[in-house]
């Protein structure tokens, strides 16, 4: 049984989407490429050109990201919005998901979603926000990737997983150093569903929203 890890910083893993950082180049395994708000500067458009070239060359670039908003460690908001909107347009053009990094930027995401007629599928990685915030996003193509916070019994992630539509969920290790099977097992216990069913559902969810399929 294959347990896909939909967002990881650990390279060399099978059945995983590796978060590829600059310099962006050709890749032979599934990855995402994006301009993280932590590393955003005035020259971000040059990095976007590299991402566009790499993602046109290789179908192994299966997502754009991390991209998003960060009011704690990111630069000025106007710069973040410009880079995010451009990356979202590119993800939409390729018909692949965008992996979202969002810290205290829920309002900025909603602003984008309400103004954009053709947003890509957006996967909010490492979801650990209140369920009430998640419910505000369900009318848009927003999905939720759950990770290490599922190992905390009363976390926001655990609470939202219980109510999250099953066709909106994914699982990840991010930079935690955990093995992905521990995340699936935690989700299995919370939802009282077999790990195998969750694994199949997550792959189905991906292949429903992305032109670049996984198996």
Automatic annotation (TrEMBL):
- Give the InterPro entries listed for this entry: Metal_Hydrolase (IPR032466), TatD-like (IPR001130)
Q: Which organism is it from?
A: Algoriphagus aquatilis
Name of this protein: TatD family hydrolase
Query: Which Gene3D superfamilies does the protein's record reference?
Result: Metal-dependent hydrolases
Q: Which UniProt keywords apply?
A: Hydrolase
Q: Which domain of life is it from?
A: Bacteria
Instruction: Reply yes or no: does the keyword Secreted apply.
Output: no
* UniProt keyword annotation of Hydrolase present: yes
